[in-house]
């Protein structure tokens, strides 16, 4: 009997957009090296591994090269798989035990709502050489738990970025969140996310980045509920709601592949 594996496009309502994640449903804990090998084989920005527990599921996330502490789109994909495979009832809350603590997911009509920790960015001086490698001079630079966050002046500047990924990969951070005000009325802010040190030059839609973006834009826009668009080539929509030291992330998901690991 093989191990069920799914590929899910997260933070989108249509296939072949949003951020693809692989989800493996395990019956028991697996060796770390095996999970890392599977993630390399899947060759997606993240592969999630779920193991049943008495009060939920153990959840771990791997890029093709390393395990990570927090991932939004693969968590959303995991919840989507649990409900759509019948492993959870559609009224059940998905409970995930992770390296970032307990995370939960609920179905809200056509949207999946994730409950994640806030990871605010504190202002810092721009590291030497950052602007040259990014290809733009940020108006704000901050450091969150995982990433550098940079605000640009306008949306067109954000879309036109073509960073030096080899240079950025030498910085001791998970990735680079770049954001700007939206120039379209349906979104409050835009972003892109680069993680070349994790072998993901540009992540299509990054749920965990919005744990830093939500408090950043809430302070600037004066509201706690916002709709964001990640302006990667695939693109994706993330709704955010700031609640104290937690942020609710809402997104949609589509299964594009079902199979088994031999």
Explain the overall architecture.
The protein is α+β, with helices and mostly antiparallel strands and 262 residues long. It has an 18-stranded mixed sheet that branches. It is globular and about 55 Å long. The model has no long low-confidence stretch (mean pLDDT 97). Helices cover 19% and strands 42% of the residues. It has helices at 32-42, 72-84, 130-134, 155-159, 165-168, 210-221, and strands at 3-10, 19-25, 47-53, 56-62, 67-68, 94-98, 101-108, 111-117, 122-123, 140-143, 147-151, 175-181, 189-195, 200-203, 225-230, 236-243, 246-251, 253-261.
Question: What's the short story on this structure?
Answer:
The chain is an alpha+beta fold and about 260 residues long. The protein is built from 6 helices and 18 strands.
């Amino acid at each position: 009997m093989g191990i069920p594996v799914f590929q899910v496009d997260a933070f989108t309502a249509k296939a072949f957009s949003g951020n693809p994640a692989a989800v493996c449903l395990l019956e028991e804990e697996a060796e770390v090296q095996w999970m890392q090998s599977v993630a390399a084989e899947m060759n997606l920005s993240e592969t999630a591994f779920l193991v049943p527990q008495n009060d939920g599921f153990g959840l771990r996330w791997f890029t093709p090269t390393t395990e990570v502490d927090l991932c939004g789109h693969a968590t959303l994909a995991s919840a989507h798989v649990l409900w759509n495979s019948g492993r959870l009832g559609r009224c059940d809350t998905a409970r995930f035990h992770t390296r970032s603590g307990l995370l939960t997911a609920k179905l809200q009509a056509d949207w999946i709502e994730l409950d994640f920790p806030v990871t605010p960015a504190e202002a810092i001086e721009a590291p030497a050489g950052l602007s040259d490698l990014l290809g733009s001079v940020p108006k704000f630079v901050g450091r969150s738990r995982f990433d550098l966050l940079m605000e640009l002046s306008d949306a067109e500047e954000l879309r036109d970025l073509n960073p030096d990924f080899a240079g950025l990969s030498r910085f001791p951070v998970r990735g680079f969140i770049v954001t700007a005000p939206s120039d379209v009325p349906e979104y409050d802010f835009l972003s892109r996310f680069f993680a070349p040190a994790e072998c993901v030059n540009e992540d299509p839609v990054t749920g965990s980045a919005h744990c830093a973006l939500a408090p950043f834009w809430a302070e600037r826009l004066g509201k706690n509920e916002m709709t964001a668009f990640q302006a990667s080539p695939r693109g994706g929509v993330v709704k955010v709601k700031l609640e104290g030291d937690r942020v609710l992330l809402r997104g949609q998901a589509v299964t594009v592949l079902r199979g088994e690991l031999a």
